[in-house]
């Protein structure tokens, strides 16, 4: 098969063709390394490990030959080339969270999620960019520079943001420079870039995937998840990523289902909730129309549509932007220039701390540390942080009540399509509003998924979000798969041919 044919395969297709020996893992990896080279102007990768990937591909082919001889079956992602977000620690490979303060940090250990993926046979092509310490909705705060969305508006040539913080992951998948990628989602950082780049992305239930070895942003909100081209690929990847981890105190000891088996193509009999509060200010008419179309698709497929209310939704975003910076302020206190990463000398210890943190952290990270320290300070803890935690409980209760009437919720993923790089750079509040439809899911610890469902009038992808009950990723994936079938979304970024 040609390189072009190989890089356009889904994980499911490549897995089956590798099993039939229609091509070898080394050919699949070679094709994706060529795509990495061709898409380098997009700035998705911050560290490329092509040589290691080719060595791993050879070992993969050897394993497959051996298993064929003894009559066994291969691991679920044997030979599949993947990208790893720079928030994940990878043994022997730089892991910087895209921050200057971690420049030169090379872990001596592997994060549990990436170790699980490697154990299931996947092959790492390299580390991909994210907003610094995963703080952002545009992937423009990375110390390695802005990542560019492969999609362009039909009426201008402006470079668009890929969304954040997992923008590098989304771009690598959308531009065919990886078959799939890991992401982390604290307030929408998997789902929003998935929507902006026309791919699928799933934030699992909090505790489904281990956080051990992932650089912490907000510990009660962060969750790793898969980013791929289809719901089926996300299901395959999630099963490889998930599982109980005794090294992570927030990991939950629950069996990992066969998520792919849940994709029956049927939603008949399911009740799909439509929350009336999700008609957010600033939402484009095209996204509202797509939402109505998604409702119609599920209704036609046999699902029952019910209106539900999530009355505390309007308080979720302010609560999130108190809780997340507060936890970030605590987590980032460990980066002092002493133990690892960048150290900037000073006349004394205090000045060394100040210089290292002042030069090591970017503006957005500093802004959130300051916000978080303020809301945790004496005199303000009760007024801000404690109140935000109360709102968080109310948001969670809203979902619990809604799920007494329905099996899952359907909403838009974002209020707008991708915007131009620099468009909201001087207005942090405008940037934060990109998360208005996604943060509730993190506050409640629920699974949520974005699937591509259409294009706007300027040719940009739009996503629909499915939210499920805790630990019910199977239903979320099943609905996502049906929406994909109904929408027939198969559009590709026009700019790919020019790279």
C-alpha-based Rg, rounded: 21 Å
Helix content percent band: 25-40%
Poorly predicted ranges: none
H/E topology pattern: HHHEHEHEHEHEEHEHEHHHHEHHEEH
What oligomeric assembly is this protein in?
A: single chain
What is the distance, rounded to the nearest whole angstrom, between the alpha carbons of the first and last residues? Answer: 21 Å
Number of alpha- plus pi-helical segments: 16
How would you explain this protein's 3D organization?
- The chain is an alpha/beta fold.
- It has a domain at 3-267 and 473-498: Amidase signature (AS) domain (Amidase signature (AS) enzymes).
- The protein has 16 helices and 11 strands.
- It has an 11-stranded mixed β-sheet with strand order 1-3-2-4-6-5-10-11-9-7-8, with helices on both faces.
- A hairpin with a 5-residue loop joins β10 and β11 (461-468).
- α6 (167-174) runs parallel beside α7, α8 packs antiparallel against α16 (473-487) and α10 crosses α12.
- The longest helix has 22 residues, at 381-402.
- It is globular, with a radius of gyration of 21 Å.
- The two termini are 21 Å apart.
């Amino acid at each position: 098969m040609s390189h072009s044919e190989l890089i356009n395969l889904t994980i499911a297709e490549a897995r089956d063709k590798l099993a039939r020996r229609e091509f070898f893992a080394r050919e699949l990896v070679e094709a994706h390394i060529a795509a990495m080279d061709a898409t380098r102007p997009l700035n998705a990768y911050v560290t490329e490990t092509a040589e290691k990937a080719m060595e791993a591909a050879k070992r993969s082919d050897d394993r497959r030959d051996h298993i064929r001889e003894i009559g066994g079956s291969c691991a679920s992602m044997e030979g599949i080339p993947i990208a790893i977000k720079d928030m994940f620690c990878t043994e022997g490979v730089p892991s910087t969270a895209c921050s200057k303060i971690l420049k030169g940090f090379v872990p001596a250990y592997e994060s549990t999620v990436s170790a699980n993926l490697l154990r299931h046979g996947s092959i790492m092509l390299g580390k991909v960019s994210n907003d610094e310490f995963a703080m952002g909705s545009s992937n423009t705060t990375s110390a390695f520079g802005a990542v560019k969305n492969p999609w362009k508006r039909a009426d201008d040539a402006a470079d668009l943001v890929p969304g954040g913080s997992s923008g590098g992951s989304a771009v690598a998948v959308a531009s065919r420079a990886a078959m799939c990628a890991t992401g982390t989602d604290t307030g929408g950082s998997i789902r929003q870039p998935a929507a902006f780049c026309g791919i699928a992305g799933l934030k699992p239930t909090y505790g489904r995937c281990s956080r051990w070895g992932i650089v912490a942003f907000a510990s009660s909100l962060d969750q790793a998840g898969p980013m791929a081209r289809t719901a089926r690929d996300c299901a395959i990847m999630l099963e490889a990523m998930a599982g109980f981890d005794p090294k992570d105190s927030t990991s939950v000891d629950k069996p990992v289902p066969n998520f792919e088996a849940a994709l029956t193509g049927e939603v008949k009999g399911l009740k799909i909730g439509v929350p009336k509060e999700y008609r957010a200010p600033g939402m484009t008419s095209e996204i509202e129309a797509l939402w109505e179309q998604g409702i119609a698709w599920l209704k036609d497929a046999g699902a029952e549509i019910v209106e539900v209310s999530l009355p505390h939704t309007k308080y979720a975003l302010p609560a999130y932007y108190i809780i997340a910076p507060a936890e970030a302020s605590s987590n980032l206190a460990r980066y002092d220039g002493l133990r690892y990463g960048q150290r900037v000398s000073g006349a004394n210890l205090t000045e060394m701390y100040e210089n290292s943190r002042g030069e090591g952290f970017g503006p957005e990270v500093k802004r959130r540390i300051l916000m978080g320290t303020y809301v945790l300070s004496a005199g303000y803890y009760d007024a801000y942080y404690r109140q935000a935690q109360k709102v968080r409980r109310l948001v969670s209760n809203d979902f619990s009540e809604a799920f007494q009437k329905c099996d899952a919720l359907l909403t838009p993923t974002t209020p707008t399509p991708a915007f131009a790089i620099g468009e909201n750079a001087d207005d942090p509040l405008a940037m934060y509003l990109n998360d208005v439809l996604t943060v509730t899911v993190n506050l409640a610890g629920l699974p949520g998924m974005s699937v591509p469902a259409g294009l706007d009038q300027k040719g940009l992808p739009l996503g629909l979000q499915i939210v499920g009950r805790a630990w019910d990723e199977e239903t979320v994936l099943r609905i996502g798969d049906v929406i994909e079938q109904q929408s027939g979304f198969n559009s590709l970024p026009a700019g790919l041919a020019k790279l």
